[in-house]
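Onboarding guide, step 5: your first structure request.
Type a short instruction followed by the sequence, for example:

Predict the 3D structure of this protein.
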Amino acid sequence: MESTLGAGIVIAEALQNQLAWLENVWLWITFLGDPKILFLFYFPAAYYASRRVGIAVLWISLITEWLNLIFK
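The system replies with structure tokens like these:
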């Protein structure tokens, strides 16, 4: 487990140091991965496309947020 975490740190450092010109792209990706965006953007878009998929996205986001709170 320690080696996996260490490798993740090395990769994050390499991305930050060698690809500094992509900072705005990484900020945008971080914004899109924020859990609040699930409820504000992904759920309505999925619900508009298909009611069944929209409700599945809502349940998945609720369960992942709940598990995140439990395991922290």
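Each response can be followed by summary notes, for example: The mean pLDDT is 87.
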